[in-house]
Each structure stands twice: as C-alpha cells, then as structure tokens.
Amino acid sequence: MLQILIARNYGAHVLGSYYLVLSIAGILSIFISMGYPWIIAPILAANEADETSSAVADSIRLFIKDATAITLLIGGPIVIYIWFYPGMLFEQRFALLIGLATAPFYAMMRMCGSIANAKKMFNLAGLPELFLRPFFMLVVVSLVILFAFELKASSIVLLNLFISFVLTGWMAITLIQTDKSGILVSKTENKLSSSEASKLRRLAVPMIFSILFINMFADLEILIIGLILPAEQAGIFGVAMKIAALLLFTVQITHQILLRDASDAYQSGDDTKMQEILKKANVFAFSASIGSLIVLILFGNLVLEMFGDQFSVAYYCLIGLVVAQIIRAMAGPAIQILMITNNQKTGIPVYICSATILVAANVVLVPVYRYEGAALAVIITTLIWSVWLTLLTKQKTGYSISIFQ
Q: What's the rounded mean pLDDT across residues 314-335?
C-alpha cells in the first residue's frame, strides 16, 4: 500500500530511487550484522539446556562490538565517497547518506528479531519490521499527501530511518524486560577470550554470504537493475520484484520459524522429527507458492495497475519472478540446515558463483529483453543455486530437504 501510494502520487522515478537506497541499506546491514542473527537460535537452544552458560549474552555483546566496528570501518569511506562523488545531485547524495545511516538499525532490528524468533516470541520477531514500520510510514505519507506537502525520495528515506530507530529501541527494551532468566543479559559479565570470540566469528561470518544472497536476493537484484536501467524503469521492475517478494517472504518466514525446532531435533539426534519438520515446512511453502502463482496469473495485471498504468508492462516479468520463488520453495531450507549442522562454510562457493551468474545474466539479458530478461536471469540463478544447495545439504548432513524427500 505504501509503495502504491508513492508510485501513484510521485511516479516510478521516486519509487525507483527509494528502492535503490533501501536496497543499499539492506545489503550494508548484512555486513554490519556479520551473520550473528542467524547463529543465535542454536546458541540459545544450547544455552537453555545449560542454565549456567552465558553464551547468548556473550554472543550479543560480541555482536554489538563487531557491528560498531564494521559500521565505522565501512561507513566512513562510503560517506566520503558519496559526499565527494562528482556530478551527483544533492537530493541523490542526501538520500544515499540517510540510507547509509539506516543500515546499523536494520542490523540491530534483524538481531532482535532473530532472538525473539529463537525464543518463539513470533509477534515481536515479525511485527515491527514487517508491519509496524511500513504501517507508520503509510500513515505519515498519507498525511503528507492529504495536506499537499512536497515529498522527495530523501524525505521518505529519512522517515524510514526515524521509524526504524524507534522500533529497534522498542524491540531491544521488550526483549530485556521479558528476559526473566537472564539469558540475554547475564548478571555477571564474562569477557570472551580471543579464541572464544574467534570461534563465534567463524560460525557467524560465513552466514554473510548466504544471507546476502538468499534473504537479500530481491534487494541485490533491484540494486543490479538500478545500475543498468534508468530510475523509472528500475522502479517498474522493483514493483514486480516486491510483489514477488511477498511470496518470497512466505518461504523465508517458514524457513526461519523452523530454526528453533530443527535445532532441538538436531541436538537430540532425532532424525525422524527433523524430516517431519522439513516436510511440513516444504508443503506449506510450496502450497502458498502455487496459490500465489494462480492468483497472479489471473489478476497480476490488476495488481500492477494499482501502482499506475505504466506498471502493467511488467506482467510477464512478475509471473517469471513468482516461478523463481516456486523453485526456491521446492528446494527446501538448505541454508538453515547447513547452519544448524555447522556446515555453513560449504555453501560459500555456491553463493559466490550464483551471484556472479546473476550479474552476468542481467548484463546480457536485460539490455535485450528488459523486464522479461531480468526475470529470466532470476529464474536461471535460482534454479542453479537451489539444486546445488539441495544436493550439497544432502551430501554434508544426510537430510533430504526438498519437497521431493
């Protein structure tokens, strides 16, 4: 609804700029978080089994320390580059700098959400980022339009920064207040040895590549398209990608929710329970994917035209992007199972090769076939990494993770 409002009142150009800036912020946040949010579930499961352990609190402190260091390390040079880049309009420069400032809050929100998910506090894990942030933005943007004030891409990004800051603080405070057992903030602060810190980093850092490629796939593709096509065309493609991302969200959240139960099953050595968990998750994700495809085949044009008449040209692109998500749903939660079984490093060559294929396919196909070429690039890349990861997971863990198990 928010994106429809922006597109219809300010055009595909502003929406495209908004997509580009937030995609950059989202991708940077993955590097800032350094993979810690995705290793917290198995650490918390082990910590609850051993009540004397302070592993979760130690991991959180190390996350804050490393995230701060990475923000300063990569943020400083990027700020200088943006500020002195020749020929850039002030509006673009300002929007990019605000987007950069948003990245650390995205990283912290992601960490808080992962902790809440691991503690099975699903409302806290999902509501702030997936509902409250866009809802509050929708309310404010609606009021701005109602009173006929001018709104630029930088203004929308600044609003997003403020709301993200408030919601991140609220999530952190709520987690601390509900931490009755002191798992998150241990009463006695234990200073991690260098070897213990290195061990945690070795577990977390490989997740950067997997999450950057898998959870941020839509943002990565939008960023690539934003560098190839003009802002207006990038905005039209971005709408199709964001609609498809609603389906992608269903698959992602299904895989994310199974993390804690899958971690418990793995630690107890219950392979039967693990396969049952995987089967239920795959059936739900695949069914939702097929249902979404049918709906969009029938009503995709109407959905796109809600953003404006010029967006209907992306109909076949939208269908192609949904097909790519069906492929992903069929493949199963490879990244989660590799992480739970401490095999996350084995996926790095898959992500690097697949990211290279994604860029190359876009560069070759988009100039010729435009939106349909972008969708085809996504389908090709998704098929390659999905099959590769599924086979790799079977080889490394013995688990059959696809819907064909």
A: 90
The conformation of residue 1, written as its DSSP 8-state character, comes to -
Q: Do 71 and 217 belong together in one domain?
A: no
- 323, 372 contact by CB (below 8 A): no
Residue 189 pLDDT: 56
Residue with tokens 């795959």: 282
Q: For residue 318, which of 292, 339, 338 has the smallest C-alpha distance?
A: 292
- Token pair for 339: 């992480």
For the residues 10-28, what does the mean pLDDT come to? 85
pLDDT digits (tens, 9 = 90+) for 347-362: 888 888 998 999 999 9
**Tally of domains in the chain:** 2
**pTM value?**
0.75
Instruction: Please report whether residue 404 resides in a domain.
Output: no
- Please give the distance of CA 345 from its chain centroid, rounded to a whole number: 19
Query: What 3-state DSSP class applies to 26?
Result: helix
Question: What is the rounded distance in angstroms from the CA atom of residue 56 to the CA atom of residue 78?
Answer: 32
pLDDT band at 301 (very low <50, low <70, confident <90, very high): very high
162-to-136, 166, 323, 348 alpha-carbon distances in Å: 11, 6, 36, 35
Better-scored residue on pLDDT, 352 or 207? 352
The DSSP string of 106-146 is HHHHHHHHHHHHHTT-HHHHHHIIIIIHHHHHHHHHHHHHH
Q: How far is CA 144 from CA 11, 133, 137, 151, 172, in A?
A: 16, 17, 11, 7, 30
Alpha-carbon gap, residue 114 to 39, rounded angstroms: 9
CB 346 within 8 A of CB 396: yes
Query: Domain range holding 60?
Result: 1-182+191-199
